[in-house]
Amino acid sequence: DAGVIQSPRHEVTEMGQEVTLRCKPISGHNSLFWYRQTMMRGLELLIYFNNNVPIDDSGMPEDRFSAKMPNASFSTLKIQPSEPRDSAVYFCASSLYGDQPQHFGDGTRLSIL
Amino acid sequence: SQQGEEDPQALSIQEGENATMNCSYKTSINNLQWYRQNSGRGLVHLILIRSNEREKHSGRLRVTLDTSKKSSSLLITASRAADTASYFCATDAGKGYSTLTFGKGTMLLVSP
């Protein structure tokens, strides 16, 4: 069974550019999470979807960040415009139900120059 | 602020030794989970312990939970070089829906 699939694995772009990160959760999982990991702040929850509906987006840093889940098998996290302080590893995770163990993708390492 | 805080931040041991990591949290929880992260990879779920459980085992892993002290420990017995990774505890923070709040992790180095 395929795990959570994220793309791209690495992204390097200049500040001001739009960045789109993609995630395919495990089939049948109804909960999807986007996280950001940095050395300084650790692993932070950005947004949580349940059955494709955003439930908790209190972790989204500012309006430059947006996330969508148009169907059960696909989600995007978009940053527009990007800034150097957005450099981090972004993880997508999914779970069968909200309080079940989460399955993580291998992340997207984002560098904003 | 972090709900879970791991201790120590880093731990270095020899193969065959036991490794103990601790986690403290602040609010009431429904469950506590431990995850492992190898360098450059995503987190992998290890074990979940519910608030009404005191101890749980999985292979060489033993987790304890003390809700009165708001703390948990993860014991890895007979460690191997392949156990080298960062270990995180995560709690559900009792929000009524189940998102997790992660600590900053313990970096474990197991030397051959």
What features would you describe in this structure?
The complex is a heterodimer of chains A (113) and B (112). By secondary structure, chain A is mostly beta strands. Chain A has no helices and eleven strands. Chain A has strands at 5-7, 10-13, 19-24, 31-38, 42-50, 53-56, 65-71, 74-79, 88-95, 103-104, 108-112. Chain A is globular, with a radius of gyration of 13 Å. The termini of chain A are far apart. With 112 residues, chain B is mainly β. In chain B, a hairpin with a 5-residue loop joins strand 4 (31-37) and strand 5. The interface between A and B is medium-sized, with 22 and 23 residues.
Summary tags:
heterodimer, A: 113 residues, mainly beta, seven-stranded mixed beta sheet, four-stranded antiparallel beta sheet, B: 112 residues, six-stranded mixed beta sheet, five-stranded antiparallel beta sheet, 0% helix, 55% strand
Quick check: average pLDDT of chain B?
A: 92
Separate helix tally of chain B: 0
% residues in beta strands of chain B: over 45%
Strand content of chain A: over 45%
Radius of gyration of chain A: 13 Å
Straight-line distance between termini of chain A:
37 Å
What is the oligomeric state here? heterodimer
Shape of chain B: globular
Please summarize what this structure is.
The complex is a heterodimer of chains A (113) and B (112). With 113 residues, chain A is mostly beta strands.
Chain-wise SSE layout:
The complex is a heterodimer of chains A (113) and B (112).
Chain A: E1 5-7, E2 10-13, E3 19-24, E4 31-38, E5 42-50, E6 53-56, E7 65-71, E8 74-79, E9 88-95, E10 103-104, E11 108-112
Parallel strand pairs in A: 2-11
Antiparallel strand pairs in A: 1-3, 3-8, 4-5, 4-9, 5-6, 7-8, 9-10, 9-11
Chain B: E1 4-7, E2 10-14, E3 19-25, E4 31-37, E5 43-50, E6 55-58, E7 61-66, E8 71-76, E9 85-91, E10 101-102, E11 106-111
Parallel strand pairs in B: 2-11
Antiparallel strand pairs in B: 1-3, 3-8, 4-5, 4-9, 6-7, 7-8, 9-10, 9-11
